[in-house]
Amino acid sequence: MKIYPLVASLLFHCITTASAQIAVQADTLYTMTGDLKPLRNGVVLCSKDGKIERVGPLGEVNIPEGYRLLKAAVATPGFIDAHTTVGLSGILNLDRHDQEQLETSAPIQPELRAVDAYNGRDPLVQWIRELGITTIHTGHAPGALVAGQTMILKTNVPAITDPEKNTLRPFAMVASTLGSGGFGRGGKSPGTRAKSLAMLREHLLKAQRHLKKRAEAKEDEKPEPNLRLDAMAAVLEGQTPLLVTAKRHQDIAAALRLQREFDFPLILDGASEAYLLLEEIKAAKVPVIIHPTMARPYGENENITFTLAAKLHAAGIPFAFQSGYEAYVPKTRVVHFEAALSVAYGLPHEVALAGCTSAAAEILGMGNRIGSLQTGLEADIALFDGDPLETVTHCTGVIIDGKVVSKETK
Amino acid sequence: MHASLRYLTPLAILAVIAVGSLGGDENSSPIRAYVGAHIIPVTAPEIPDGVLLVEGETITAVGKRGEVAIPKGAKVIDLKGKFLFPGLVCTHSHVGKVQGGDGSSPIQPGVRVLDSIDVLDSTLEKARAGGITMANLMSGSGHLLSGQTAYLKLRDGVTVEELALRNKDGSMAGGIKMANGTNSIKGSGGSPGTRGKSAALVREQFIKAQQYRDKIAAGGDDPPDRDLAMEALVDVLEGRKVVHHHTHRHDDIITVLRLKKEFGFKVVLHHVSEAWKVADEIAESGVSCSIIYLDSPGGKLEARDLEWKNGAELEKRGVLTAFHTDDPINDSRWFLRSAGLAVRSGMSRQKALEAVTIAGAEMMDQAEHTGSLTVGKKADFLILNGDPLSVYTRVLETHVEGNKVFDLDDPGDRLWAEGGFGAGHRRLASGCCFYK
Question: Exposure of B159 by Cβ count < 10 A (0-12 exposed, 13-18 middle, 19+ buried)?
């Protein structure tokens, strides 16, 4: 639909130029702070440099002269998709043209960078941006033992000319897949679960030796850079989490075992059968980026439950939602559509919202920049004409770094 | 809900009888009055505080509380705060491990999907849990014509015969699955390599069928041998079988309309990703559309231009429009979301609710007995805990012809509704270890 109530309201409310600072006023404002309860008639002021200047109920916070006022029934922090492949797995689904999410020439390739594979102009990036998603954790997909790197960036970045400036984190995680999803193609190793772990342990040991060598080397004898080992060394040094896609309970258990052995930051991905290992996951203090609620219940996902989010919440395990990777149609899922359904299956509404805002930011290590509406954080805001999780609700506007990036009613 | 009695141990049968004698199951009473729900009959205005009366397998009254007389001896079920909605009709589903033609040729009208369906598969239980009471089970789109489809009521049964709908002459009800565009273009094994060839192969078979029909009609001493493929195509030519035609791109849609004109068959366009580009032509041709809602476009070239506004654009032009799951593309348990997305993108609430019920029933020629909460129709209905367009709404019970086939309060049924360990298995016999 190409109707522009937001534009109309802009013309009505706004007497200043398009470059003016933005004020958002919402009947219901989800700041996603404290007890997660929304403010009634809340206001957010954006600063000139794209940060949040002030937040509070109207009256406590007044809208200064010269601000461009955007009104909405509901406003939230811009949504965060905690794990996707958008920008790498393009809309057309054509190999060698727009499918950059998986390279199958070798089982372990942590040196593959997401920043070198991203197309910010793919129509699916626009699709999710116009629905209210402002930040994505995207990159190499599940499908290889170690598929490559991921990154965190905003959905208004058309191209990565400067990884440090254009992304929130250019090297966010190393993506690994356990279980049959990570097996080699065409008879190549790994072909079993045991072999997968043997190969992974061997690689981690190599990276350990590489680190040791680097630490012990004299100033003028630094070892040659090794892209593959350097990437895995970052995991062992604790700078970069290993994102392990594991669906079956035995694969989740294997990931936890590996983490105990090598002591690296671990994030579980998918985790379809996590409900069988709640105590173990909690004890390991490992967060979970859960499979899309609407993931298809076949193969290693045959035992998924729509109640997983509610079960993790009840167990006190931090989790976030994701759109994941889709091989066919729909080419991408929409993270808050997935969160919404978990409410029907026992998750409190505000916790579902947190799973694609504040809690997602925390798991991605970005809680000090995005995911909630607080003074000093980046001004990423999504506007809606109703409950943001309801299917019939429209996203009516999207703001990234204090600038309007979508005026669609979608 | 439960496996048929033959699956139960004698002890379990005794238990069932004992519970039944206590009146625990309202379906054991011949007359049931569902009182106090918000009733959405779909073909009549909504009733905020209504009564639905069911006798045996038939709806005998629908109306406001106080205006419907509740017969003496009726079992009264209080549904205050709940919604009553017709059973959902899915015009395009692949549940039940359905299969059609094999790789031997692109056009196989003699193949019946009916002969392939596993009615004990968990996908049928999940469909019941999603509120689907009638479905058109179809083979895939990898052929120009992959077989005869099967119209099933999702009754509680262990053979496909128990589920199959029948035509007035006693034959199994169903249509014909056809496809054009990319999926059916393979360029090997007799399959077409281009769109032109696709249409030529189809045209050739329909001309043959016309000749076969005419030869039989002419009578004479030397009638042709029975030909299963030709018989099925004659059913199509004579309007006894509807063509359910997979088609996405605007030019492929127009090709279907051209073939329809040439051979005069009844057709429902399925998926119709680019319907919005040729909505006027679709309306003019008088065909109906069964469309799909996906959470994003793309994934295949033909779905690149899929738009949510398809429903609204077809409604504007008065085209009979239904939705489908295409399960496993959209799991049957999320079918009501399609109506939500349709309303989000400009379709009216009324037409969106019709599109998951009565419109599909009309396309399957079953509207006479199902698809709405109407006196005289079969008691195919759902008890919901909220409005059907809300994402938070759950199906609490599914009833087919007066029998409860899904009950969220039943632990076994809950597994089909929510998933969990064992939910991927075939339907389970009673007392199985997976119920937790």
Answer: exposed
